[in-house]
Design a protein that fits this description.
It is a single chain. The chain has 266 residues and is an alpha/beta fold. The chain is built from twelve helices and five strands. A hairpin with an 8-residue loop joins strand 1 and strand 2. Helix 4 crosses helix 5 and helix 6 runs antiparallel to helix 11. The radius of gyration is 20 Å and the shape is elongated. It starts with 10 loop residues before the first helix and ends with a helix.
């Protein structure tokens, strides 16, 4: 993989280094358009040396949406090894429904900062976000449009967040069978739409999202793919009973696997 063309011109981060910053934090969230599952924020603290010369095993860094799953999985462990520290945070589908999506995103970012801060000896000089304003942040925070394509720190954070969230959704798949979470990661594929109509929403669906609200009200989305699904009686919809212990265990297992320091400390 080659370094992204966008990552060749890191004007935003270099402007902070020129002002004397010695530790830059970047954050990004993933799962914004999904119908199910949490929104996950990643955060990394980047030392100046990485801006001077990017190691070979970090070549290919880019916005996570522009990378394949294989590329993200290959880059994630190298990101964790080269940054000063990294953290993850999430807001659940229930928090998204109750607080609103914008508030949930900021909650996930604050939780990622808490995770990051426990591993640092000092606070970063600045936090860079991808078009998310963070009033009341514990350190100076600056929001930039398309920061995941313009800032090395934000791009790396987006990769860690995406890898973590994909792993969570694969673990949810056997807990809530039928929705194909292992493949669609909670996004609105045709198979996911059909499952929503036949099964109704499960515990990790975002009930404030319109397609999920329609399914919960037995109203068929306009894009339902098959005639059989359209004619299926509402009585055939089987409720999915949430297993909270399984959900909690899946989240803890994924977090421990991605954060060996936390596992060792327990």
């Amino acid at each position: 993989m080659r370094t992204s063309v966008r990552m060749q011109n890191l004007a935003i981060e270099w402007s902070w280094l020129d002002r004397g910053a010695t530790l830059i934090a970047g954050t990004d969230e993933v799962g914004r358009g999904a119908w199910a599952g949490p929104v996950v924020a990643g955060m990394v603290a980047v030392p100046p040396a990485l801006y001077q010369s990017l190691p070979l095993d970090l070549q290919g860094i880019d916005d996570s949406k522009l990378l394949s799953p294989k590329q993200r999985l290959a880059l994630a462990p190298h990101i964790e090894a080269h940054v000063t520290a990294w953290g993850l945070g999430a807001a659940t589908s229930r928090e998204i429904a109750s607080a609103g999506f914008g508030t949930a995103v900021r909650l996930a970012i604050r939780r990622a900062y808490t995770d990051l801060a426990t591993k640092l000896r000092r606070a970063p000089d600045v936090l860079l976000t991808d078009a998310v304003r963070m009033p009341g942040a514990p350190i100076p925070a600056e929001s930039y449009d398309k920061a995941d394509q313009r800032c090395l720190s934000v791009a790396m954070a987006s990769i860690l967040a995406k890898v973590h969230r994909d792993r969570l959704m694969r673990r949810f798949d056997p807990i809530y069978p039928g929705y194909d979470f292992a493949n669609n990661k909670g996004y609105g594929t045709r198979k996911h739409q059909a499952a929503l109509f036949h099964l109704g929403p499960c515990a990790i669906h975002r009930r404030s999202f319109r397609p999920v609200m329609r399914a919960a009200s037995a109203l068929l989305p306009d894009t339902q793919p098959t005639r059989n699904a359209i004619e299926a009686p509402v009585a055939s919809r089987k409720p999915v009973v949430p297993n909270r212990n399984c959900v909690a265990a899946a989240v803890r297992s994924a977090q421990d696997k991605e954060n060996p320091q936390r596992t060792a400390a327990q």
